[in-house]
């Protein structure tokens, strides 16, 4: 029996849409009352999480939708996974919720074990972890670690701060607050606070009206698909983009302390790049004494068929920091060089320094993936999914182009001819019982849980077969 | 029966100290933990299973009366039975296993949880809430709300221009904003890049991190006891307000918002009078600046009111919270502060229903057990006890402050070294207590602190002063 059948004996056999629109009448009422107290303008529908099961999300109107979006790629093991319910009711979880510690000051006696349970699942080459609370938080904490390290190295790790540094920083001025930068890529998404917002380059609406740091960008490869028939073009594209990165290091107005990159640019359109590109990036960072941060917030934790997507590129030496959140249900950065731990306390610090509740969930999710060997069947499901989509692509070339993500399990995407067609497609898929999300201007991205199986693929594909001819 | 007796029949009657702190077990555990975690800021290793009520238990079995409470973030004491009930509930398990992207797919019960929880204690005039993950996160989201609001107003509610749309992708004006957030000297608002740019407490919080060139204004340095320095203090506050007004008027770019703590906490428990906060309100209103009150540390009932600024009779535009609420976020009034378009104030989780459930329980308990009255009355009693000690050690215990502000009490020592010595002596005697600023000692007990705890605290502080 498959993991999904075993864990979710009551998973619906298929979607069922019982109202003419989604949200239906009850959903609309619920959204309206929610609006009295909470911004409801992004709300797709109101979900009944008590009833949702496995791959199916159920809304207040009783619509049962196959979920290929999974809370913006953040539900790993399906709704109401019984083994996670167990973790959620365990003694250590109760303790974590009732007596939430300020971890930096008063770690609990069991905290070492919690860290070790989490560290078992660190990416190859990483041995330590610092905890945060969201993807944006994790990335900004990683930037801080890079900046502390960069300046300490420059100053000499054992040298005290100068009086000038101590004084100027109280007025937000150099040299105390130096002008140093993180380089990111066009179309990148790393979050929406002020530094993460500065490196995010996906859409204007993500950035508009925020003050930002004047940090450099470089082009991220735009490949032609299918990859097999465009090898030469794509290799040139890698070279072109890497040359821009190198040029920035040579000519940017201030030092570049680090580079942040997603293994697959997700919000920005599911843009993939090659092992050559990532290794090239690593080489440039080494050459110029900068750190490499891989943002696995969306791609990490198994979504691409391996635990950490960048591992497939065999980047050598491994990246300096790897950030995570979403499916992990806890956030933070992995690292291995103890030099990233500032040599004075209270530099990398805040009230909670993470949350044992999240750390316990993260370890439980990773254990479950590993103990049940979930990624192997997921990779197969992904290949099957890809081949089915490929057929639809050749059947409907006017609607589906640039199918991508082959070999990365169900982390698949394709483009539609326009934003409005894409919106129509997503809406009609919903009414056909499938919850699916877009990315960038015209992309459709698939982000099912790790428990998606061939039978779910078939349901997804048959919904597409119904919807595509009506576009 | 006292509140703590009702909740915690097995709470120790006094601290129990068996070893040095950290003791041998704590030390060994810290040593081990340091292989996987930075332990340089750790006081000791805590046994949360055996901590109860107002007592924190360490790995050596020492039981300390806790007046620091996880940097002011524990509201109902350790192992509170009502929180245990919530933690064991089915709702909690569902919330933990199915964490939603709240803005896109909120749960059926989120409305109710907010309405019965956070919204039921919304400060006067602010009837909407946006949830977040930490204090820093809440403040930065509040900055974004203010910045987007001001920009939208400036562009006259019109769509973005083509130039804005292209320049913003290069982090350039006019799409990127040159508006600024003003904060006060000695303020603490967090440690991410935007919040850290408004934090002005200590160099160590800020060094080596790129910062925005944002303005600051002086925060009053009041003289104590207040009744002896009325004229001086009034002049000091007026000086600061004048500087605030001038900075806003003369700064080369638009000040979108002013952020201020009702009591500057990390920066030294610096208080100001209601008139000062009313002055900020008057100036910000007149000059079209959003006023953000940061109640991350002061909020949640410790002052005898749910939000400390309610002592001042001011209504800000935005108020942020975290810590004791266990759930972070901000309250606001004006609908425009939610952003003129959807997906501007947005992130994956937009909060956490499991935290909203905890916040709801905390709020229900505050009401049911009238914990605000407890904080007020016990706080007054605590103040009077400390006042007596300050007379006894008049050269060493200085600037006792926080009268009438519930537990939100602090005092200074003449030097940082003496302050640190006092904190260490208190710990040896069984009191966990925190410092703030350079020479301050701050009290941050839970809302279930009673008179008998005050008596123990006072006698330890008295004894510790005798030793230094
Ligand atoms: C790659 C990546 N990094 C960072 C983030 C930001 O995460 P959060 O929304 O939790 O701040 C996201 C969110 O979509 C993401 O996809
Ligand atoms: C007034 C105030 N604001 C903001 C913060 C930052 O909160 P956090 O540590 O959760 O980011 C703190 C933390 O001490 C605080 O006291």
Automatic annotation (TrEMBL), chain A:
The keyword Transferase applies. Its EC number is 2.6.1.19. Its cofactor is pyridoxal 5'-phosphate. It catalyses: 4-aminobutanoate + 2-oxoglutarate = succinate semialdehyde + L-glutamate. Keywords: Aminotransferase, Pyridoxal phosphate, Transferase. GO terms for molecular function: 4-aminobutyrate:2-oxoglutarate transaminase activity; pyridoxal phosphate binding. One of its GO terms (biological process) is gamma-aminobutyric acid catabolic process. GO terms for cellular component: mitochondrion. Belongs to the class-III pyridoxal-phosphate-dependent aminotransferase family. This is 4-aminobutyrate aminotransferase.
TrEMBL record, chain B:
Transmembrane segments: none annotated. GO terms for cellular component: mitochondrion. Keywords: Aminotransferase, Pyridoxal phosphate, Transferase. Its cofactor is pyridoxal 5'-phosphate. InterPro entries: 4NH2But_aminotransferase_euk (IPR004631), Aminotrans_3 (IPR005814), PyrdxlP-dep_Trfase (IPR015424), PyrdxlP-dep_Trfase_major (IPR015421), PyrdxlP-dep_Trfase_small (IPR015422). Its EC number is 2.6.1.19. It comes from the Eukaryota. The keyword Mitochondrion does not apply. Gene3D superfamilies: Aspartate Aminotransferase, domain 1, Type I PLP-dependent aspartate aminotransferase-like (Major domain). It catalyses: 4-aminobutanoate + 2-oxoglutarate = succinate semialdehyde + L-glutamate. One of its GO terms (molecular function) is pyridoxal phosphate binding. Pfam families: Aminotran_3. GO terms for biological process: gamma-aminobutyric acid catabolic process. Homodimer and homotetramer. Belongs to the class-III pyridoxal-phosphate-dependent aminotransferase family. This is 4-aminobutyrate aminotransferase. It comes from Pichia kluyveri.
């Amino acid at each position: 029996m498959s993991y999904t059948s075993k864990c979710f004996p009551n998973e619906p056999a298929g979607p069922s849409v019982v109202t003419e629109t989604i949200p239906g009448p009850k959903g609309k009422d619920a959204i309206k009352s929610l609006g009295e107290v909470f911004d409801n303008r992004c709300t797709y529908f109101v979900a009944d999480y008590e009833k949702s099961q496995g791959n199916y999300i159920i809304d207040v109107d009783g619509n049962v939708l196959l979920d290929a979006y999974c809370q913006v790629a953040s539900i790993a093991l399906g709704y109401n996974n019984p083994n996670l319910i167990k973790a959620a009711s365990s003694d250590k979880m109760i303790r974590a919720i009732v007596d939430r510690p300020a971890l930096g000051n008063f770690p609990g006696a069991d905290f070492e074990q919690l860290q070790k349970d989490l560290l078992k699942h660190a990416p190859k080459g990483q041995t330590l972890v610092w905890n945060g609370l969201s993807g944006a938080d994790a990335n900004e904490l990683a930037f801080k670690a890079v900046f502390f390290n960069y300046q300490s190295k420059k100053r000499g790790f054992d040298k005290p701060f100068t009086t000038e540094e101590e004084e100027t920083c109280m007025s937000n001025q150099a040299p105390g607050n130096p002008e140093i930068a993180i380089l990111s890529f066009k179309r990148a998404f790393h979050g929406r606070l002020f530094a993460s917002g500065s490196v995010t380059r996906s859409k204007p609406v993500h950035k508009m009206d925020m003050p930002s740091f004047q940090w450099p960008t470089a082009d991220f490869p735009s490949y032609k698909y299918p990859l097999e028939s465009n090898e030469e073009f794509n290799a040139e594209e890698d070279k072109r983009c890497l040359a821009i990165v190198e040029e920035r290091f040579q000519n940017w107005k201030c030092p570049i302390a680090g580079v942040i990159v997603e293994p697959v640019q997700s919000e920005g359109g599911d843009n993939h790049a090659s092992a050559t590109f990532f290794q090239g990036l690593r080489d440039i960072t080494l050459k110029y004494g900068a750190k490499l941060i891989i943002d696995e917030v969306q791609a990490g934790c198994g979504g691409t068929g391996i635990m950490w997507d960048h591992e497939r590129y065999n980047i050598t030496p491994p990246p300096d920091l790897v950030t995570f959140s979403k499916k992990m249900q806890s956030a933070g950065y992995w690292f291995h060089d103890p030099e990233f731990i500032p040599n004075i306390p209270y530099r990398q610090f805040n009230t909670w320094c993470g949350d044992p509740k999240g750390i316990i969930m993260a370890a439980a999710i990773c254990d479950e993936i590993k103990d049940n060997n979930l990624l192997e069947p997921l990779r197969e499901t992904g290949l099957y999914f890809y081949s089915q989509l490929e057929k639809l692509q050749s059947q409907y070339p006017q609607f589906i182009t640039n199918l991508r993500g082959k070999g990365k399990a169900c982390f698949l995407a394709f483009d539609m001819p326009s934003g409005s067609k894409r919106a129509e497609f997503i809406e009609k898929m919903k009414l056909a019982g499938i919850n699916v999300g877009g990315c960038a201007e015209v992309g459709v991205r698939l982000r099912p849980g790790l428990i998606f199986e061939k039978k779910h693929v078939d349901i997804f594909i048959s919904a597409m077969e119904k919807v595509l001819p009506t576009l | 029966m006292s509140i703590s007796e009702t909740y915690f029949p097995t709470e120790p009657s006094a601290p129990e100290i068996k070893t040095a702190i950290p003791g041998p077990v704590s030390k060994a555990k810290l040593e081990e933990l340091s292989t996987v975690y930075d332990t340089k800021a750790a006081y000791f290793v805590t046994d949360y299973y055996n901590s109860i009520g107002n007592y924190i238990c360490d790995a050596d079995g020492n039981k300390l009366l806790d007046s620091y409470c996880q940097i002011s973030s524990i509201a109902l004491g350790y192992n509170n039975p009502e929180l245990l009930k919530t933690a064991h509930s089915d709702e909690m398990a569902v919330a933990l296993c199915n964490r939603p992207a709240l803005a896109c797919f909120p749960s059926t019960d989120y409305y109710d949880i907010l309405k019965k929880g956070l919204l039921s204690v919304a400060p006067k005039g602010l009837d909407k809430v946006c949830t977040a993950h930490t204090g820093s996160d809440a403040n930065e989201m509040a900055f974004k709300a203010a910045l987007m609001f001001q920009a939208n107003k400036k562009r006259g509610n019109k769509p973005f221009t083509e130039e804005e749309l292209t320049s913003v992708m290069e982090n350039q004006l006019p799409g990127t904003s040159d508006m600024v957030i003003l904060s006060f000297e000695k303020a603490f608002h967090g440690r991410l890049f935007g919040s850290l740019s408004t934090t002005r407490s200590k160099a160590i919080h800020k060094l080596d991190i790129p910062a925005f060139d944002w303005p600051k204004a002086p925060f009053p340095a009041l003289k104590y006891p207040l009744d002896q320095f009325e004229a001086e203090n009034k002049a000091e506050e007026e000086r600061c307000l004048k500087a605030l007004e001038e900075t806003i008027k003369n700064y080369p770019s638009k000040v979108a918002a002013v952020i201020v703590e009702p009591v500057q906490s990390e920066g030294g428990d610096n208080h100001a009078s209601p008139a000062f906060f009313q002055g900020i309100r008057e100036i910000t209103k007149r000059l079209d600046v959003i006023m953000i009150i940061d109640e991350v540390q002061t909020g949640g009932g410790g002052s005898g009111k749910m939000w400390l600024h309610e002592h001042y009779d001011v209504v800000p535009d935005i108020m942020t919270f975290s810590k004791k609420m266990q759930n972070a976020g901000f309250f606001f009034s004006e609908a425009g502060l939610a952003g003129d378009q959807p997906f501007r104030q947005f992130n994956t989780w937009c909060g956490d229903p499991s935290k909203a459930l905890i916040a709801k329980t905390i709020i229900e308990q505050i009401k049911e057990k009238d914990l605000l009255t407890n904080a007020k009355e016990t706080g007054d009693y605590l103040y009077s006890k400390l006042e007596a000690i300050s007379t006894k050690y008049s050269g060493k215990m200085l600037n006792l402050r926080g009268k009438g502000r519930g537990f939100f009490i602090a005092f200074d020592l003449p030097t940082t070294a003496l302050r640190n010595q006092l904190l260490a002596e208190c710990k040896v005697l069984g009191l966990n207590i925190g410092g703030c600023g350079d020479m301050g000692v701050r009290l941050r007990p839970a809302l279930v602190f009673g008179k008998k705890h005050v008596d123990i605290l006072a006698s330890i502080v008295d004894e510790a002063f005798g030793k230094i």
